Amino acid sequence: MLHDRIERRRFWPLPDHAGESSAARRTGFEIEFAGLDVGETASLVQALWGGTIRPLHIRASVIEGGLLGDVQVELDISLRKAWLEELAAQALGDLVPVEIVTAPLRQDQLSELTRLVAVLAGAGAMGTQARLGFGFGVHLNPALPPGGADSLIAVIRAYAFLEGWLRGSAPLDPARRALPFVKSWPATLVDALADQARWSPAGLARLYAMLAPARGYGLDLLPAFEYLCPEALSDVPHSQLKGGRPAFHYRLAESRLGDPDWSLAYEWNRWVLVERVAADLPLLTQLAAGWQAHRDRVLGHRQDWIAFCEDLLSGADGLMPE
Fold it and tell me: Are 107 and 13 in contact (CB under 8 A)?
């Protein structure tokens, strides 16, 4: 399978879009895990990258001025009331993950994340696979691509067509699937993206607000749309709008610290593969046509679409970086 050829050690570079370089694009990472508390984690980050630990409150600290800029460590719970958070943390224990949130990183800094994962796992950090009921993720926040609206829409379309293949080729842990954080995009949204290639960001944002007006999708576009065209999101519940930023919010990646066959490079490279498809217009056009044919079949099944994507991508020239 193509997924078996995705590198686990080397972080692939983001592709250029519309003839414009992606070299300057940065990406923030959010990594969830259990087994360590906030203080222990902050000390490990400081020992690895330097900086000064500044406690924010009992459930969060920031390590300032280290090798990779400021890094926040927090208990990933937000109930808006301190006493409720404390009660939930005590009651749920390791089911509430600790989360590391990095500053936006240059692409030449990403290999440092491999060191971080090794240090965390060596100190007892546990990922999703470690225990029944864990459902931890890794969130990637890559800056929006160069090349204007066409490049943005191309990446969104590529993800829409490949989401089923991404999920089918590396199935999520059952505990994570049960949580309301990584839903699949509605098929009607993918239909619209297959039927029309030249969307404006505002037009697509209005459609997205109608069909997927929540944050808990494998690719959450609300932060990007709130940054680009906030007026198009007037129908989205206010509770789902946390502030705009010029970045994608990719939530599908899974945190599997301690699994020897898993790495952050692997999860990053899966996203890079989506962008490489987006930068290949003939391939993207074939995917759109294939999706329409798949949806037109009376007896079309999810596995049929996954197999179509696998065959098409496996036969594409130059899709995998050298």
Answer: yes
Compute CA 138 distance to the chain's CA centroid, rounded to the nearest angstrom: 7
303 alpha-carbon distance from chain centroid: 23
Q: Are 61 and 38 in contact (CB under 8 A)?
A: yes
Place of tokens 């971080």: 116
Q: What percent of the chain has pLDDT over 90?
A: 80
Q: Distance between CA atoms of 79 and 74, rounded to whole angstroms?
A: 14
Q: What are phi and psi of 170, to 5 degrees?
A: -140, 80
Q: How far apart are CA 193 and CA 287, in angstroms?
A: 11
Q: What is the pLDDT of residues 33-90, one digit of tens each?
A: 999 999 999 999 999 999 999 999 878 999 999 999 999 999 875 433 343 344 333 4
- DSSP structure string for 94-129: GGS-EEEEEPPBPGGGTHHHHHHHHHHHHTT-B-GG
User: Token digits for 288?
Assistant: 């759109």
What's phi and psi for 134, nearest 5 deg?
-70, 145
Sorting pLDDT into bands at 50, 70 and 90, what band is 255?
very high
Residues 206-232 pLDDT 10s: 999 999 999 999 999 999 999 999 999
**Hey, what are 211's tokens?**
């069909």
Q: Are the C-beta atoms of residues 128 and 278 closer than 8 Å to each other?
A: no
71: its two tokens: 């890094």
Alpha helices in the chain (DSSP H): 38-49, 82-92, 111-122, 148-169, 174-178, 187-195, 201-211, 222-228, 264-278, 281-296, 302-314
